[in-house]
Amino acid sequence: MWILFAFGSALFAGLTSILVKCGIRKTDSDTATAIRTIVVLLFSWLMVAIVGSAPTITGLSAKTWVFLILSGLATGASWLCYFRALQLGDVNKVVPIDKSSTILTIVLAFLFLSEGITWLKGAAVVLIAIGTFLMIEKKAVTGNKAERKSWLVYAILSAVFASLTSILGKVGIEGVESNLGTAIRTGVVLVMAWLIVCVKGKQHTLKEVPKKELGFICLSGLATGGSWLCYYKALQDGLASVVVPIDKLSILVSIAFSAVVFHERLSKKAALGLVLIVAGTLMMIF
């Protein structure tokens, strides 16, 4: 059953990338992150209420709290970097780099969770690494020189923080109902996101968000909520080194919709890279 939850996470995560891109054309990416986190938080606690796991919060250990909070901080950092990268770059270039967090996650799972690395899994990592490299192309954007290069930096940082999120989340949800764990982490992300907005003095941008983009931001929050609930249920019952690669298949959803919605096209080199990433991911699963 956890395999199905992992695939559900991939579907919703793929939709999230497109909805976010639609919602940050004119809206500041930090502000968008803060707004959508409210939606995710409400969605998460609704699920906690449905399954009735709220009373168990008093029984959580100090270790669980620490790792849930750390996982939330890593998630917040990953989101902020990811949305900024999406705002500056194309979906079909940013998403593959973000999904390369699979490689670091597998290494960390081996080091800290004692999840083995077989020759097949090693070969899959190589394919994913090569595929990601092939999909990294120069993105022509308007703006100063720093902005033209920064989308790649933000995308890489997003991948690093995403891998840390997976490992910290795996440890943090041991002994806690997955929906409750998701809700707690989302609360941490919410506080972090709004602190960033306040520290950067971007409160005024809230009034400047177009209604249409606000709708897309809220929808992306719902998609993220669905992805998280599926992801952490799968992570709780399955292996992190298998759940994470399945979740990364969301790249297919994102790139397919980016072609339809934004008319973004893959070059032959990037298309080959995508094939290698998918092949490596499928090898991970089986």
UniProtKB/TrEMBL annotation:
Signal peptide: none annotated. It comes from the Bacteria. The chain crosses the membrane at residues 32-53, 65-86, 106-130, 151-171, 183-202, 214-234, 240-262, 269-285. Pfam families: EamA (PF00892). Keywords: Membrane, Transmembrane, Transmembrane helix. The keyword Nucleotide-binding does not apply. The keyword Transmembrane helix applies. Residues 1-136, 150-285 form the EamA domain. PANTHER family: ACYL-MALONYL CONDENSING ENZYME-RELATED, SOLUTE CARRIER FAMILY 35 MEMBER G2-RELATED. Belongs to the EamA transporter family. This is EamA family transporter. The lineage of its organism: Bacteria, Bacillati, Bacillota, Clostridia, Eubacteriales.
